[in-house]
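Q: Now give one record:
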Amino acid sequence: MDAPTTPDTSMYLLVHRALRTSARRLAGATTTYDRQDPRRTRALVRWTEGFIAELHCHHTIEDDAMFPALVARVPGAADLIDRTDADHAAMDLIMERLETATKILRMGGSPRKLHEAATDLADLLDVHLAFEDEHVIPLFERHFTGAEYQRLDEEALAILGISKQALFTVPFILAEATADEFDHSWSAAPAPFKVLYLLSWGRYRRLTARALGAADAAPGRVETVRSEPWELAS
């Protein structure tokens, strides 16, 4: 597929929405969590571990690919990236708390520390990602061609790779897409991305429902598409 003439940052923005929404869902799920349900515990631990890894992966893509390219093209963006770096450092500390909290949960302990860490993460993500959406992403749109930005997207996909984490990341992102966003993402997605979705969507949906509860209970959640593999195979 030919590259668009201007950067298509829709996937970048969709990832940010998925991160914000999921952090709030995790914080909400841990307010009513029943630790007497071992299947729920296993699902919550597995989902939280996947979410933590997704945050690490997203930051790696930004720190190793996206932001260095932006500063090389727009040196004045360095001040903006200094702020995002500080936020990433603060997030790393919260993710360490999340990791500790999941270990407590796995051993049958209270979800209180997981709830506190998830709430702090959601609060930070709301501010941090709003800043990136308003001040950082538009710089890619103004200073890169469509082909240049597409190469950055390809570099980001290479960092993710065909991995166990990708089986979480791909459905995690597309679960937040509206029907129109899903169709747009699907039409532009490379074949490996589509294969990962087809392989992982059903399992991810079941894991998320068991871990976090009904999606429509999440505050601020957009109407989403729930495409099944057989609807996409053609």
